[in-house]
Amino acid sequence: MAPHMSKLLGVATALYGLCIAQPTIGQSVSFQGPFDVEQGGLHNIHVEYHEQLNGELTIVYGSCTIDSPSQAHHQIGRTHIGNHPAAKRHLDWDEQRPTKFVWVTPSDVVSGCLHAFVDGGLVGRSEQVSVKKRKLTRRATLADVAEPLGAWFDGVEYMKQKEPDEVFVAATKKKSFGILGGGMSGLMTSLLLDSVGIHNWKIIESSGRVGGRVRTTYLNNSKPEDHQYHELGPMRFPQSLTDPDTNATYEIMDHRMVFQLADVLNELNTGNDTLQVKFIPWIQTSANVPVSTNKRRPDGTFPGKSEVANDPAYAEATVYSNATAVAEAEEALDEFKDMTSERLKFYATNVFKAHKQAVEEGYFDFSEVEYLRYVMKTNPNVTDEVASSTSISPMWEYDTVYFMADKWRTIDGGLSRLPAAFENLLQGRVIFNSKVHSVKHNSENDTLTVSYRPLGSNPREVKSTTEEFDYLFNTVPLNLLRFWELPRYSSLMRRAIDRYNFGTAAKIAIQYETRFWEHLDFPIYGGCGSVNIPLIGSICYPPFDINGTGPGVLLATYISGPNANTACAMTDEEHVAYVQQAVVDIHGSVADDNWTGNWDRQCWDHDEHHAGSWASPITGQQQLYIPAFWRTEFNTVFIGEHTSFTHAWIFSALESATRGTVQMLLDLGLVDEAKQITKTWMARWITL
Length: 688
Hints:
Helix content: 25-40%
CATH architecture of the largest domain: 3-Layer(bba) Sandwich
Radius of gyration: 30 Å
Strand order of the largest sheet: 18-11-10-22-30
Structural class: alpha+beta
Distance between the termini: 54 Å
CATH topology of the largest domain: FAD/NAD(P)-binding domain
Largest sheet: 5 strands, parallel
Number of strands: 30
């Protein structure tokens, strides 16, 4: 072929490619993207209108040369626009013409073009769309997640379960959102919504503060910088652990979400040092913390950990009814749990996949007691010696791994500094001291009416106040919803509300005139110890202001479960007196000599805003109810640590807020925004 003919052929080919790949000149609708998609993915389509179109809009995908919807590879969706009577559902859009749509790409899709038709006539065609195969092993993005019992929330499958035209048109960001509860999940949700340009939200909080179960008590009206505080709620974050068998160190990845949140808040509060969140080391244990033993020092005080480990005089053998049977039962549990080095690493680095594996391998099917009694046929007495008969939780060992951590962090000035850092974000958008008692769905306009009364008011005398929202995030513990007036949720969700189990805990913090524990013959510099004085449990020494010259605060008791219920049956004065005497028994009269009379007590089961310390699902509940939490009902998404894979940790609340916000955004068709959140808050610290 002659050179000039070859050039002409090349030009002709290029022109043909432009003809089929570029939008038609003078088209009424132009596509603004996406132009790079994945097979089996989830995307937003963006369009612009260049004239006032009215009628039924249909968007399809297929060859770039088609001129009829019937020739398409697949129909993406259809809806009425403009002045068509059926377009009234799009009142939030300018002239009732939506510009944002949802596209779930099939797994067999190939390169082609997007096409827009109105009443069957072609009104717009996109440039050629590039299609890539789905990447199955990459950082967590919206389309890379698995089923509810597996790795994370599966956005693609979630959208496939909906009718195509139901989710075809994306919502505008003008919708109103109510957030019930100003705990960590509610606060995180408000931050996430703001981050994607959704600002029409409001928090309704039953108490006079934000933070939920994050509660630092500052004794004697002190300030955070005075270091006269302790934690009545969560108090620490496990950061990393060292495998005792391999000496390998692993970051505990999930709690990095807390550190990322602090970074974001610190950036928002640049220039305001009082709102900066600063992490300091937490001392989980130290050489001289008291231990649970019947042996005592010559002066009658409790020996410390290193003394018991090194001095034969403090050796104390445990007596069992049948030592051989106990050893066999313990070995059976160890074999079933199979906490190998590889599994330890797995739990530390990817709690989502660890949860999936735990479900598949049956760890959620048995508590330790159930496994010994009904699988191993261990007799009841030996079973109770090995695993307390009060234990009804499945063998989901994430907490075991967390407490193997050898590096911990806490927040300087108390964990309440974390919710306090939301101050600038929240201004004017929180209704405090307002107890919700009713949520009603309005079928005529698909909205929700929330009714609440002032905290402490008499329901028979005070009229309720109402707020109307398009959508709700409900963070309230399920057990508190049992006496609310609620929509007719699905049977599974209603049973979760009625039956999901919550634990309880009790704490007392006491201020002393000096940090006397740091000046004993066996000084204690931070750490938590445990003693066998009934109803005391753990005692934690402050990890901050070591060797300070002023007063100091002990967490003088921390107990959970049935013992907390018993202890909280005492009056405040009885309980504090009992605990103070225990501190004297542990450390001697120096504890009485330094008594200030300043203390604070928290019985989480008695707290009207929480009615429990954390979710504690019994065997079978978690894998049964999680799918209900991940289903939007009556425009309501349920979040909070009780809806997460793990419980009792701030991470659990933050993770639930991330999942719930993504879920809500998908319900609204805001796929780009959902991807933005997932990429920002998941991909940076975990891989799937």
